[in-house]
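__Protein archive entry__

___
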Amino acid sequence: MRLPEWIRTTHVPGLHETRSLLRRHRLATVCEEARCPNMGRCFARPTAAFMILGSACTRNCGFCSVVSGHPEPPDEKEPDNVAAAAAELGLRYVVVTSVTRDDLADGGARHFSRTIEAIRQRLPATKVEVLTPDFKGRREALRTVLQAGPDVFNHNMETVERLYPAVRPAADYRRSLRVLRAAKDLAPHIFIKSGFMLGLGETPDEVGRLLQDLLKAGCDFLTIGQYLQPTRKNLPVVEYMRPEVFEDLRKRARAMGFRFAASGPMVRSSMNADEMYNCNPGPKQPAATERASEEEDA
């Protein structure tokens, strides 16, 4: 399928300088590993979503281009390297994500915690967002990350429940919802964030159910973007959704009670994350949450 005109990306200056800094600190970014189409724009700002715990993932999701394989042991210097790179870039908002490490007893939770602590020590005024795997639903792993005090906890749903076997075969839709709910229960003062993609074959009704499930799970911030096939080995795009579809979903999410929703063909989970945090969003609408709870009970 040919890319529609609203998905075109352009080269921007600044890409090489940020890449050089990251290599010097021996760091990876999800921007590069996942072949994000917004990488040039973000690197030029500069900003980046640091990817810790190596570049090999223990899972093999159909939508993702991150290499699947047997990862090496965590780099003990990585938390300090992330903090040093963030300081050199002058970041006021840092996003930290990772590959999935099912081979580790805690799923890498302690490494997340150490990275947050290193950033806090080097840049005490900087906000920190973590985008974590599901840790196989381990509550203690979540507690370890949250006790380090991130400002935003993000775990992406990625798609609707029916498509999980193809899109996220080693994950579980209900488990991911439980992760978000547990994060809200363990740290009610922290913003909870999630996101998903369109264009994989989902139906409008399935998207509506996903929105309801996210709201009931305590999600505050929401991102919705177009799926783009990163390599020929990944799942094909079923449909390129028009911009007005994304705008309608953004309005719907806000009306339902999400504090903030970013929705558009080129929206990605970590893109402009600082703007989402600093938008000073209004509170959730209690009535919307109550209606959602009533629907679940029914």
